[in-house]
Specification:
single chain, about 140 residues, two-stranded parallel ribbon, globular
């Protein structure tokens, strides 16, 4: 994972975690990055000093913090549970229903479901507000 210090056109600073540098470029190119403060899509990387490790092992801010990870996983789980309990699951009709709500052709309500990357890209390009749902916990059959 790579942690980037990011900023928007209004100089709001925030962090983003990406699987690789190419993942950041891909998400930025598809308009999927957004400032959490003002929702601006004009997001760029801030200048950062590289994290270089010496020969002695020392704790740094770049190393995973198990307590922070547990807290983030719990928060993401709460978000997912809230959406699943309070929003309508529209399945693979998500893109069509999100567009209809945005255009005022369907009842205004919270929805979730599945969409292809192409459908998501088209929704974002058309200004339809969408966000990925945090992943659910792993199934017991997927655990070691």
């Amino acid at each position: 994972m790579i942690k980037y210090a990011l900023t928007c056109e209004h100089d709001h600073g925030f962090e983003g975690w990406f699987g690789s540098s190419a993942d950041f470029d891909d998400q930025q190119g598809r308009g999927l990055l957004e400032c959490p403060v003002c929702a601006s899509k004009a997001v760029r990387k801030q200048i950062m000093a590289p994290a270089v490790r010496g020969t002695k092992r020392t704790a740094t801010a770049a190393e995973p913090n198990p307590q922070m990870q547990a807290m983030m996983m719990e928060a993401m789980g709460r978000i997912r549970r809230h959406v699943e309990e309070n929003f309508d699951d529209v399945g693979d009709a998500f893109a069509r229903e999100a567009r209809a709500i945005h255009e005022g052709k369907a009842e205004e309500r919270g929805i979730y479901g599945q969409a292809t990357p192409k459908e998501v890209r088209e929704l974002v390009e058309d200004g339809v507000p969408v966000a990925p749902l945090p992943p659910g916990p792993p199934k017991k059959s997927e655990l070691n």
